[in-house]
Amino acid sequence: MKAGLDAAFRSITTYEEALNQHAIVSVADKDGRYTYVNEKFLEITGYSRDELVGSMMTLILPEDHPDTLGVEIVTKLKNGQTWQGELMHQNKQGETFWVYATIVSLFDDRGKLESSITIRTDITELKRTELALRKTQKLEVIGQLTGGVAHDFNNLLSIIIGNLELMQLDALLLSRAGDLIGNIKSAASRGSVLPRRLLNYSRKTPVNSTVLNLNDCLSRDLDLVSKSLTNMVHVETDLAKDLWLVDVDEGDLEDSIINLAINAGDAMRAGGTLKFQTRNVDFETAQVKASEKLMKGQYVELVVTDNGVGIDPELIDKIFDPYFTTKPADKGSGLGLAMVYGFVQRSQGEIFVTSTPGEGTRFEIYFPRANTADNLGNVEKVERKTLTAQHNETILVEDDEDIIAETTASHLERLRYNVLIALNGDEALDIIRSSQKVNLLFSDIVIPGRFNGYQLAEKVLKSRPDIKLLFATGYYGVESRLAHNEWVNNTIQKPYGRVEMSRKIREALGQ
Fold it and tell me: How many helices (H) and strands (E) does the chain have?
């Protein structure tokens, strides 16, 4: 295979001048060390050739890059597959930039991976433009979401207030208290979902991709979708059982579902049907029209159809272009489908559209099946573990809202934990520094006083490194804003239920 590697180098050097104008090229050995970099690579990274050749490819990756991505790339290369996708890099000055990369593997005579060639294109400006488009698009659709959400939230408040007033009216109603409380709890649980959805939709920074079940996301979001449409639009679903998992940005997925729904609603002013379908597709065996654009492998298909006015044939190729819209100037910016297209591409997927004027439009989206060892076609059902105290543990609850602290303590005591309460950080520290036993600190993150919940935890660990930690917050994304991403898995979002809280506590205690 040495002849093949030499030929590759000769090809690179022959066209090096042209490549330097447009492409960022590198070659790495089987261990991931650079053996060749072109001038464009030196220019964009700020490193010298001596600094790069012989160094690991991770030199230009940000410190917080996902390890799973490297595993995915290496797996594909070892199988002789080409990897393509977007990557974030970091230059010598610590500045980040984005590239679209194509990585090809070369094998020796024994069929062993010998090296890889990577050709990159700088897409930093495109990413910046896309971020601006996303922000603008959110402003456009948030108005449509607000009306439906406000209506639903007011209904929930009416249920809560009405049931509470019934309980206050007459002592005889105490016999119905269980049913009334059940109504209140149900309404409050539904209400707690609404602000989370809005926060997910309006957040300013993307989150890392997550392995999830597309059916779960659709089932959760379609209620919100329905609120964004008129009563004349009927929403249907046909969701496959045992759907494979996908690895996508959950917030981007929600945005895309909402944008596709709103577009469909605009196309069905006189009413109609919006349908969401999912299924598993194996491109090794199935022959579908998308196969010429997608690599062989397993995908999860999402189909969104409407029976609206449709799209003229000459406009089909333009609908994913930024700022292209067939709506009046005051009705749309033309950014919704561009955002959906960008999300699908970032997810290593493809999106296709077919439409017949007067009959409707069909979007087919393909997401690669998540490359996880435990992807069994469905989320595995985990055996329910005992949620009560197991070793006479003591939990210190810190929350500046005394009603929340007392309510939490009551639940924990029913689960047979010993509970201590602190209403601020100083009180919590006094308890920690006393002789009292504490196994876990359960603290709010945003608390009044000299320090926040994370700073309290840091002080606690200095004197008591054995204490476990669990945080609660009513804010979204506060972990990254306070520079404590390492504790994101030790955080529970308010409002939380008794079962969710008890599970997180068992996880935090490591049992």
Answer: 15, 17
* pTM, 2 dp: 0.47
Decide if 311 contacts 319 (C-beta within 8 A). Answer: yes
Pairing outcome for strands 246-248 and 96-107: unpaired
Question: What is the third-level CATH fold of 394-508?
Answer: Rossmann fold (3.40.50)
Pair 335, 322: CB distance under 8 Å: yes
What confidence tier does 201 reach under pLDDT thresholds 50, 70, 90? Answer: very low
Higher-pLDDT residue of 365 and 322 is: 365
Which pLDDT tens digit goes with each residue over 368-410? 998 764 444 343 333 344 577 777 899 999 988 887 888 888 8
Q: Are 263 and 333 in contact (CB under 8 A)?
A: no
Helices marked H in 367-472 — which ranges?
Answer: 402-414, 425-433, 453-463
Asked whether 364 and 352 are in contact (CB, 8 A), the reply is yes
Q: How far apart are CA 273 and CA 7, in angstroms?
A: 57
Q: Could you report the per-residue pLDDT of 226-249, keeping only the tens digit for each?
A: 766 777 888 899 999 999 999 988
**Weakest mean pLDDT among 34-43, 193-202, 440-449, 451-460:** 193-202
Annotated domain spans of the chain: 2-122, 129-368, 394-508
| CB 260 within 8 Å of CB 304 | yes
**CA Rg value for the chain:** 27
Residues 6+ apart with CB under 8 A from 171: none
Reduced to 3 states (helix: H, G, I; strand: E, B; else coil), residue 191 is helix
pLDDT tens digits for 60-106?
A: 988 776 666 777 788 888 888 888 888 889 999 988 899 988 888 88
CATH architecture of 2-122: 2-Layer Sandwich (3.30)
Query: Hunting for tokens 């996902």 — which residue is that?
Result: 66
Residue 77 tokens read as 């290369």
| CATH of 129-368 given 3.30.420.310, 1.20.1250.20, 3.30.565.10, 3.30.70.360 | 3.30.565.10
Residue 45: C-alpha distances to residues 18, 19, 60, 99, 297 (Å): 19, 16, 7, 12, 34
Residue 270 has pLDDT above 60, yes or no: yes
* Number of CB atoms found within 10 A of residue 146's CB: 13
The DSSP H or E segment spanning 105 is strand 96-107
Strand runs labelled E in 291-409: 298-306, 350-356, 360-368, 394-398
Q: Please, are residues 263 and 336 in contact by the beta-carbon 8 Å criterion?
A: yes
The secondary structure of residue 308, as a DSSP letter, is S
* DSSP 8-state assignment for residue 33: B
| CA atoms 155, 157, 158, 162: torsion sign | positive
Helix (H) or strand (E) holding 171: none
Q: Which helix (H) or strand (E) holds 359?
A: none
Look at 118-132, 370-384, 437-451 and tell me which has the smallest mean pLDDT.
Answer: 370-384
> Which amino acid type is present at position 254?
E
Residue type, 215: N
